[in-house]
Design a protein that fits this description.
The protein is mainly alpha-helical and about 525 residues long. It has a single domain, classed as Sodium/glucose cotransporter, CATH 1.20.1730.10. It contains 24 helices and two strands. The radius of gyration is 23 Å and the shape is globular.
Length: about 525
């Protein structure tokens, strides 16, 4: 009973603080609703970026992969820090120069309105099919297991999943649809503090349990018994070979942190270029700690339970159940709930923004007022939330969820990044070449990964390498087509220039430090794991 009370208390506290902070905000006009009135500070942006990214598909899925494959899976976190440096120093100053609200709006400045519409529709489809239902389903499974909902309510596991999906969806929908970006960002920041405490507590208690009361002794147990699990350098044929870090791994991370609307929209609401860069780089520093609570618990679970867990994705829930005191279950559940809500409401709010600005006012009603655009975005968000909640329980088992999400997302992510990257890099890429390459890239990845199963001439190639090659092929194709085909050229090259006035003076120094730390973390763990 106490766990339920603490869960409700922490969750209610987040909601009340978010409401009090935003009750006087302007939610009727586009800038206030979609961009938080450009009031977000660096720390709020950092917290929102971290919580938007982190949810149960990572806590459960990535730790599940670590249980099986060891520290090599930390690449999803560590390479993300590098991608965030690229965002802060390269992409964000150009976005800020254009004063945009969506990534497709930037595309219109570089190419044309039709390309913007294509991108807006693809972003919506990607978030809806590859993100929202997965977040709801994995969140429902995690919370249902943590609180024993089937036994608590006397219902079947399937019924409990439906109940939790709708509870999460309704709560997240209220934040996203009625609160706007600022309410989402503030609730993210508060939940981020809780996640920092709760997320770090699990591996600490796990190490203490392994060490018979000593955290350091627990670490020694892992180093002595399963040092190979600590080696982040994956070998060919393993889950994440080290060579993939320089191909598909970096491409997918740069897409996610530099062009994904759900992520970059937080930075568009910054008070200034300085605060935006500060928020991104603070989040990059926090990302470096990600392996401690997203990878290490899976390794601890392997040492604690052995290799015989029936489902690898039960590694994290099993460890939490084994080491977390009963009086902290409610608090930890509230933190997990906050992480789930953050991912869901951020995706939902981004969909409302994309529909309102790129579809409704961009295509359906170009003369729509700000009030009409916001209202259309809210209505669309409501419908999308209902559909996502209806579809989520039908996904099935969450086993292998993390890898499945990444592969599905790569269908659209890599081609989108390619046309944005080449559009910023050079004015020599034509609009027609970008459009042809966009759909060619999506088709190539579908054929390669889902029809040929990444087997070419009898040789199997890792899907991350395939993603990297697809990116390179698209970039070359755009250059070739631009030289051989006449098409409409860019009408507004100002978007290609970065904003320099008001930039954060420490940005380059901190960015360089983050990159050096990435190298040192890999070196340290590799030496430890191979000793």
């Amino acid at each position: 009973m106490f766990s339920i009370f603490s869960f409700v208390a922490f969750t209610a506290m987040v909601a009340i603080v978010s409401y009090l902070k935003t009750r006087n905000d302007d939610h009727a006009h586009g800038k206030g609703y979609f961009l938080a009135g450009n009031t977000l500070t660096g720390w709020v942006i950092a917290g929102s970026l971290m919580l938007t990214n982190l949810s149960t598909e990572q806590l459960i899925g990535l730790n599940g992969n670590a249980y099986t494959h060891g520290a090599q899976v930390m690449a999803w976190e560590i390479i993300a820090a590098f991608a965030m440096v690229v965002m802060a120093l390269y992409f964000f100053p150009r976005y800020w120069k254009g004063q945009i609200a969506t990534v497709p709006e930037f595309i219109e400045k570089r190419y044309d309105k039709q390309t913007r519409r294509f991108l807006g529709a693809i972003f919506l489809i990607s978030i809806f099919t590859n993100f929202l239902p997965f977040v709801l389903y994995s969140g429902a499974i995690g919370l249902s297991t943590l609180f024993g909902v089937p036994d608590l309510l006397g219902v079947s596991i399937g019924s409990a999943t439906w109940i939790m999906v709708w509870a999460i969806g309704i709560s997240g929908g209220i934040y996203a649809i009625f609160g706007g970006l600022r309410a989402v960002a503030i609730s993210d920041s508060i939940n981020g503090l809780g996640l920092l405490v709760g997320g770090l507590l699990v591996p600490v208690l796990g190490l203490v349990a392994l060490g018979g009361g000593s955290m350091l002794a627990g670490w020694d147990v892992i180093v002595e018994n399963i040092p190979e699990k600590l080696d982040p350098i994956g070998k060919p044929g393993e889950n994440i070979p080290f060579s993939t870090l320089f191909t598909g791994m970096i491409v997918i991370n740069v897409y996610y942190w530099c062009t994904n609307q759900s992520i970059v929209q937080r930075t568009f609401g910054a008070k200034s270029l300085k605060e935006g860069q500060k928020g991104i780089l603070i989040a990059a520093c926090l990302k470096l700690a990600g392996p401690f609570y997203l990878v290490l618990p899976g390794i601890i679970a392997f040492q604690m339970f052995g290799p015989d867990l029936a489902d690898k994705d039960m590694a994290y829930p099993s460890l939490v159940t084994a080491v977390l005191p009963s009086y902290l279950v409610g608090f930890f559940g509230a933190v997990i709930f906050g992480a789930i809500l953050s991912s869901f409401n951020s995706g939902l709010h981004s969909c409302s923004t994309l529909f309102g600005l790129d579809i409704y006012r961009g295509m359906m009603r170009p003369d729509a007022t700000d009030e009409q655009t916001v209202k259309a975005g809210k209505y669309f968000g409501f419908v999308l939330a209902v559909v996502a909640m209806s579809l989520a329980p039908l996904i099935g088992r969450a086993d292998g969820l993390f890898d499945l999400m990444k592969k599905l997302a790569a269908v659209t992510n890599v081609p989108i990044l390619a046309i944005i990257f080449m559009g910023i890099l050079t004015t020599g890429v034509s609009t027609k070449a970008a459009k042809i390459s966009l759909f060619t890239g999506m088709g190539l990845f579908v054929v390669s990964s889902f029809i040929l199963n990444n087997i070419f001439f009898g040789v199997e190639i890792h899907w991350l390498h395939v993603a990297g090659m697809n990116f390179a092929i698209m970039c070359v194709l755009m250059l070739v087509l631009s030289k051989t085909m006449k098409g409409s050229e860019n009408r507004d090259t100002v978007a290609l220039e970065p904003e320099t006035e008001g930039a954060w003076g420490m940005a380059k120094g901190i960015g360089f430090t983050v990159i050096v730390l990435v190298f040192l973390i890999y070196t340290f763990l590799h030496n430890l794991g191979s000793a």
